[in-house]
Amino acid sequence: MDKEQQHSRGIYLLPNLFTTAGLFAGFYAIVAGIRGEFEVAAAAIFIAMIMDGLDGRIARMTNTQSAFGAEYDSLADMVSFGLAPALVIFQWSLFDMGKFGWMVAFIYAACAALRLARFNTQIGIIDKRFFQGLPSPAAAATLAGWVWVGANNDFDPSTMAIISLPLTLACGLLMVSTVRYHSFKELDLKGKVPFIVMLVLVLIFALVAIDPPIVLFTIFAVYALSGPVFTLRKLRQHRSERNPNQSDT
Question: Which are the contacts of 71, defined by CB distance < 8 A and separation ≥ 6?
């Protein structure tokens, strides 16, 4: 009887509404990419990223977390941050490379699926302060930002394949790597913050407004690079701690 009542409760509307909005934005990015509207496609991926950031927070704030919501969010992420950026960058820059181009796009999409599957199995196990591997929304934002920069400045897509190809492959491999990235989940959004924090946020919004494609691409490209840099620094620290005398010689 309890199980029947549990199944009859249905699903929580509010967080899943934001998940659906993110899924819609990701799907629309694919449609826009097929149409050749690459600036719109890139912007849609960023909108999907915002929706993805909101649905989980709203679920936690309203105490409406559910197993259904977690699974639905993961499937929506695969569309918005796996398939959408892979297809958009393929249509924009990798199309003329033939089989090699779509294979690299497929590798990115497959890595996104593997990244999401691994994340789901590690919930509650790993340190919440860090992500293992580049988060799929950040990887998607890096590719979308690059497409947006190229389309906005009328770069030749075929020439830009020199950058698009290794960038797509690197983002895919970083997603399935063991490189650690800051999750920023320790930030307390409910608590009070110093006035300087609000000033910094205003400056960030102003910078983004000046040139959204370049600023957004720069932010997420720097974040993508921060993981390997952070990991290398940690490895050097461990080596110096194990061999303190070796650093003096």
Answer: none
pLDDT, tens digit, 9 for 90 and up, residues 77-87: 999 999 999 99
pLDDT digits (tens, 9 = 90+) for 4-51: 444 446 788 888 999 999 999 999 999 999 999 999 999 999 999 999
What are residue 168's phi and psi, to 5 degrees?
A: -65, -45
What's residue 80's pLDDT? 97
Rounded Cα distance between 218 and 145, Å, is 8
Helix pair angle (99-121, 157-175), 10° resolution: 30
- Whether pTM > 0.90 for this model: the answer is no
State both tokens at 17: 């509404």
Give the span between the Cα atoms of 129 and 24, in whole angstroms.
29
Which string of b and e fits 197-224 if b means at least 16 CB within 10 Å? eeeeeeeeeeeeeeebbbbbbebbbebb
Q: 238 or 170: whose pLDDT is higher?
A: 170
Consecutive H or E run containing 217: helix 212-242
Matching residue, tokens 């691409």 = 217
Q: Which two tokens stand for residue 201?
A: 């946020």
138 conformational bin, left if phi > 0, alpha if psi -120 to 50, beta if neither: alpha
H helices within 62-156, ranges in order? 67-77, 84-89, 99-121, 136-152
Q: How far apart are CA 133 and CA 172, in angstroms?
A: 10
Token digits for 128? 């919440």
